[in-house]
Structures are given as structure tokens and as C-alpha cells.
Specification:
Layout: E1 11-15, E2 30-37, H1 45-66, E3 69-76, H2 82-91, E4 99-105, E5 107-109, E6 120-123, E7 128-131, H3 132-140, E8 146-152, H4 176-188, E9 192-196, E10 206-207, E11 210-211, H5 212-225, H6 233-244, E12 251-255
Helix pairs in contact: 5-6
């Protein structure tokens, strides 16, 4: 998590959309800013409040200096929830001449299994994470002229079993591969797949944010559907088993 006196990680993620020079007569465009500051975050709320004021002030300066028309949304305090953030991202109206700024200040973390180098944004009110890379991709997919996407959070490691679950952005963000993966696992598949989280005589353990098996399974399922038509129940359940085998041994049976 984030230390107020010494921030372990200051992540600066710049997403550039390089386009040809716009014609001189084209409208200069808007400055679309989404500032999210978890001012209710434990131990660092005062620091995050300072970040909010500083970024809000700077965004205003940028708008005045560039003559871009400012469209700013701020999410802070009790409104910093994953659904609110995803809705704000989804609702962003972005034109091809627009500049977008996204900023997040709060806690952050990562796990050993995380595949990209970017942190998860910890949403303290929900006890969940949001993958910063997903935020950047959602914004970049709107095809602005330029996007500046920054988070001031830790990128330090938490044990898999203690890490908050990452909340996915559902709906329009699903790729074709992900949709095909879900169809392969839940439509093409036939028979009965029966699963229990532990073997005979074993306990099933809890993590901080749900059952150890359930949270691990969901994480592996999200990973598997990205493979599209190559998605496999055997691989999902096998990786889930291996990830928690030091505590319990899940069992499953597929009946045609």
C-alpha cells in the first residue's frame, strides 16, 4: 500500500495517439478530465486531499493555457467506488480532437501473477482493485487525439491469498476473444461439471475478500476466456488447484 511520507511508486503512464497534423481550420477540441481521489483511504486521506486540490488546479491551468474547453469530473470521498469509476469512464464523451486526462490517487498493489507492469488501483470503499492498464485501454479505445493517464499509487506486492480481487469492467469492454471464451466454456460445453473446493477431510479456507477457492477460480476464469475458442475447463480448474494446493485440494468431475 501507499506510504504518505515516501511513496514507493509514482507511476506515470502516457498513452500517445500519434496522428497527422490537424488542419488549421479544425476545432481545437476539449480537455476531458476525470480526477479520482480516494480521500477516504486509510492513513493517506490528507495527502490524497492535497493531490485532489493540486490536480484540479493544474487541469484548470492547462485548459486556460491551451484554450481547450474544460470538461472535468471529480470523484472523491465515499463516491470512489469501482462501479462509479467504470461508469464515468464509459460515459466519457471523447472526440478525435480532444485531450483526455485521467488521474488516480490512493492505495495500490500488485500480485506475483499479474501479467502487466502496471499496478491495481485499490478502491478502499469496495475492497477491490481495478487494473490500471484496463483504465488506460478503455480511454485509448475512445480514440482521443492525446490521452494522459496517471496514477499515484504503490505497485508493491501482496500475497495472492491476501490481495483484493480485481473488479472487471463488464459490457462493452469485453473483447471478441473473451466473448468466444465464455461461449466455449458455457455454451459449447455439454454434460455436468461438478466441483468442490476441497477434498475429503479438508477445510475450505477464506481469504480477506471471499472464499479462497472462489476468488482464485474467478481470477483464473477471467484469464482463460481471453484465449477465446482455445479456452479449456481443464486448464481453468487445473491452475486453480495448483494456486491453492498448499492449503486445500479442490476436486472436480465432468460427466458427459
Amino acid at each position: 500500500m501507499k506510504n504518505r511520507l515516501m511513496r514507493k511508486v509514482f507511476t506515470l503512464f502516457l498513452v500517445l495517439g500519434l496522428t497527422s497534423m490537424a488542419p488549421a481550420y479544425a476545432a481545437i477540441g476539449n480537455l476531458v478530465a476525470l480526477i479520482v481521489c480516494d480521500t477516504a483511504a486509510e492513513n493517506i486521506g490528507e495527502s490524497v486531499e492535497d493531490d485532489l486540490l493540486n490536480l484540479h488546479t493544474e487541469v484548470g491551468t492547462i485548459a486556460r493555457a491551451t484554450n481547450l474547453y474544460l470538461k472535468e469530473k471529480i470523484i472523491s470521498g465515499s463516491r470512489v467506488k469501482a462501479d462509479n469509476i467504470y461508469k464515468a469512464l464509459n460515459d466519457l464523451k471523447v472526440g478525435s480532437n480532444d485531450t483526455v486526462i485521467f488521474y488516480y490517487s490512493g492505495h495500490g498493489y500488485r500480485t506475483e501473477s499479474k501479467e502487466n507492469k502496471w499496478p491495481n488501483l485499490y478502491i478502499s470503499a469496495d475492497g477491490v482493485g481495478i487494473d490500471f492498464d484496463k483504465v488506460a485501454k478503455i480511454i485509448n479505445d475512445k480514440k482521443p487525439r492525446f490521452a494522459f493517464v496517471l496514477c499515484d499509487v504503490c505497485n508493491s506486492f501482496l500475497p495472492e491469498e491476501d490481495a483484493p480481487p480485481v473488479k472487471e469492467f463488464l459490457g462493452t469492454s469485453l473483447t471478441t476473444a473473451e466473448r468466444n471464451g465464455y461461449k466455449k466454456l458455457f455454451v459449447t460445453q455439454t454434460g455436468l461439471l461438478q466441483v468442490s473446493s476441497s477434498s475429503v477431510g479438508e477445510y475450505s479456507w477464506c481469504a480477506d475478500n471471499g472464499g479462497l477457492y472462489s476468488t482464485t477460480f474467478l481470477k483464473q476464469l477471467k484469464k482463460e476466456v481471453r484465449l477465446g475458442n482455445a479456452a479449456s475447463w481443464t486448464d481453468v480448474l487445473g491452475r486453480t488447484h495448483d494456486a491453492i494446493a498448499n492449503k486445500q485440494h479442490p476436486q472436480y468431475e465432468l460427466t458427459p
